[in-house]
Design a protein that fits this description.
This protein has five helices and two strands. It has helices spanning about 5-20, 25-45, 50-70, 95-115, 135-150, and strands spanning about 125-130, 130-135. A hairpin with a 3-residue loop joins strand 1 (about 125-130) and strand 2. The chain is globular, with a radius of gyration of 15 Å.
């Protein structure tokens, strides 16, 4: 294993897997929901700029792509793709993007709750293109953390 792979695994463990490892799907869903409310307030007060739109399109694309990965645990085939096809249209206006984020996060919450209801093994691993295999709990934390970090640059 390359040193860069070892470092990446350590980072993933420290910032994604470890904090999620003792949470239930329900707890992770509650954190996603709380994050959604905070981000909705931030987005409502943010300036409608091309940069903000691009950033929100990216956030939505990653979350939709991550949902697709989570659905593998519910029986769907694992696609070999990137997040770009999951982004909303470049023509979408600011209000439409905010609505798309809300709907996308709601779908993530639905998936998290389904994982809990179906008693899916939370430590099942689904690959991330850059970060390697991540547990289902890790994926839910990753999606929340990614959106929160990326939204910092939206003003």
């Amino acid at each position: 294993m390359k040193i860069s792979e070892m470092v990446m695994r350590g980072v993933v463990w420290l910032f994604i897997e470890r904090p999620a490892s003792w949470r239930t799907f329900g707890e992770l869903a509650a954190r996603l929901e709380h994050s959604q409310k905070k981000l909705a307030g931030k987005l409502a007060n943010a300036a409608d700029t091309p940069e903000a739109k691009d950033k929100l399109r990216h956030i939505i694309g990653i979350e939709r792509w991550g949902q697709r990965r989570l659905r593998v645990a519910l029986g769907e085939a694992l696609p070999e793709d990137e997040h770009h096809p999951y982004k909303p249209s470049e023509d979408a206006d600011w209000q439409a993007l905010q609505q798309a984020f809300h709907e996308t996060r709601q779908q993530t919450l639905d998936i998290a709750r389904t994982l809990e209801t179906e008693a899916v093994a939370p430590d099942q691993r689904i690959p991330h293109n850059q970060l390697g295999p991540i547990t289902l709990r890790g994926w839910l934390r990753y999606l929340r953390t990614h959106a929160n970090l990326e939204a910092r640059s939206i003003r």
